Amino acid sequence: MNVTLALVSFFALVLDASPRATASEGTVESVTKLGKAPVFTIQVKAADGKPLPNVTVVCIDPSTNASLEGTAIEGGNERLQTDAAGQFALPAVGGENIFFVIANDKGFSLSQSDDLTNHPTMVVRPWGRIEGVRINGGRPLPNQRLNYALDWRCVGSLEIRDRFGTGRNQATTDSQGRFVFEHVPPAIIQFYEEHKHPDAWHRLLPLVEVKPGETTQVKLETRGQPIIGRLELGAGLASDIDVKSCFGGLSPDVDWRKLREPLEPREIDTIEKRTKWWQDWYKSDIGRQSLEAMAAGTIFEFHSDGSFIGEMVEAGRSRINGNLQQNGKRVAVLDEVHIVVPPPAGTNSGDAPFDMGKVTLKAVKNLKAGDVAPDFTVKTLDNQPLKLSGFHGKYVLLDFWATWCGPCVAEMPKLKETYEAFGKDERFVMISLSLDSTREDPKQFVKARGLRWTQAFLGEWSRDTVTQDYGVYSIPHIFLIGPDGKVLASGLRGPDIREAVAAALAH
Fold first, then answer.
1. How confident is the prediction along the chain (507 residues), in pLDDT tens digits per residue?
2. CATH topology classification for 20-124
3. Cα–Cα distance for residue pair 310/300, rounded to 1 Å
4. Could you say which of 68, 98, 228, 287 would form a disulfide bridge with 282 (CB–CB 3.0 to 4.6 Å)?
5. CA angle centred on 454, ends 435 and 6, rounded to 5°
6. What are the start-end ranges of the H helices in 133-206?
């Protein structure tokens, strides 16, 4: 899909505000340049409705990592405490969406500030449990390393989905392929299978709903086979390049735009409503196909001699994509080869692998600070000509995106904040370049979201030349260009977007 995978708004820690709560007072003070902020109260209850005093609530924002380790949360940002009435308080200030997580011996609860605005209650429900068996080609798979994660769609925040993991909550199958997960959050759970290499894995179906206090039975069944190949270095790459650090794999050769996920209705404001809405979508033809397509992909394990292997690859049409980075910069990409993986010859996962042959690792353009931004002429969504050099003398924020790209959509609130903060500055302009297949998709999106900055249209990625000139191999990809036409920054994401613009305009 060529999308960096890889996360709207009520509460945030702003202006260096530092909330602090005490069990005795049950209040939070947020000291800012504007003085004390108003507060609103959140009630924490057990499943039977009784208040839960002296419970720790962990805050996780878009810049903070945290993980569930057994029945405790490690990491996170602020740790608040409920008072004797089972309540804690928050500053009622605008800003980023925040997760609030409770995990202890009694159970688990997760909410986000967007939802707590209308429903200021968190319910701690007992842990669930999972018993299952891992099968491939009709045979149980021993010694397979499995992990689970919360289904981020039902959780509801793209911004924070990669900030909250399941840590050491792993299981290894026994000689009969059986496994057990203890202390599982009562939620929609998805499974992953790890390979020998720490970066190699693939997703497994089905998704399961874990009920509080109950054991859920699951069968993780595939009919996959190993697939092998070898990297071939393209022109411009050093012979001693570290190919082992390449990251890539196979994904099903489908039109992802037709399988794109729908936008949630605005009235969804609880995890319960969100879970029900997504479960209904999963049952639709598009939802089912989308889940199956995502589970059909696999990540490769690359070796220093250029060979690579993927495990449990399902039969069907697939394509390979990936990249190699050095010092945080993409220096090469895998040639996007399309192949047809045949059905496995036997039922044993240890049978001879399918050899897909050679794949070329190609050097890429890599615009860096100080490079001249290539000029281009495109059409706006209203079919008016737009030329980058026409904005010479201004700071230009250039955004490559598409409506079918989930991470692109997740960045829109940050871009909108940036425009609202600096859009009236005559020295600054924002341009979004759509890689949708038709103008109508971004037109409808822009209108629905009230986006007021300049919107242009590139069309099909495979036929576009602007992305090639800028070395854009994944989206979103956001550049900041100076008044002299030279690149000031690239790869901007999240709060870095606004910060980079603010720093540039401060000169």
1. 333 222 222 222 222 222 223 222 333 333 223 234 456 799 999 999 999 999 999 998 878 889 999 999 999 888 999 999 999 987 654 567 888 999 999 999 999 888 888 889 999 999 999 999 999 989 999 999 999 999 988 887 766 777 788 877 789 999 999 999 999 999 999 999 988 766 678 899 999 999 999 999 999 999 999 999 999 999 888 888 999 999 999 989 888 777 877 878 888 888 889 999 999 999 999 999 999 988 888 999 999 999 999 988 989 999 998 889 888 778 898 988 899 999 887 555 456 889 999 999 998 887 889 999 999 999 999 999 999 999 999 999 999 999 888 889 889 999 999 999 999 999 999 999 999 988 998 999 999 889 999 999 998 777 788 998 898 888 999 999 999 999 999 989 989 999 999 999 997
2. Immunoglobulin-like (2.60.40)
3. 5
4. 287
5. 45
6. 152-155
* Residue showing tokens 């859920």: 216
**Structural domain spans, the chain:** 20-124, 128-224, 226-363, 377-505
pTM of the model: 0.72
- Lookup: tokens for 419: 């425009």
Identify which of 411, 400, 392 has the alpha carbon closest to the alpha carbon of residue 435: 400
* AA identity, residue 18: S
Report yes or no: 39 and 88 within 8 Å, Cβ to Cβ: no
Pairing of β 66-69 and β 164-165: parallel
Q: Is 20-124's fold the same as 128-224's? A: yes
- Among 172, 175, 30, 46, smallest CA distance to 98 is for 30
Q: Which residues contact 377 (CB under 8 A, 6 or more apart)?
A: 385, 386, 387, 388
Q: Rounded distance, CA 436 to CA 459, Å? A: 5
Domain 128-224: give its CATH code: 2.60.40.10
Please classify residue 34 by burial: count the beta carbons closer than 10 Å to its beta carbon, then call 0-12 exposed, 13-18 middle and 19+ buried.
exposed
Indicate the CATH number for domain 377-505: 3.40.30.10
Which CATH number is 226-363 given? 2.60.40
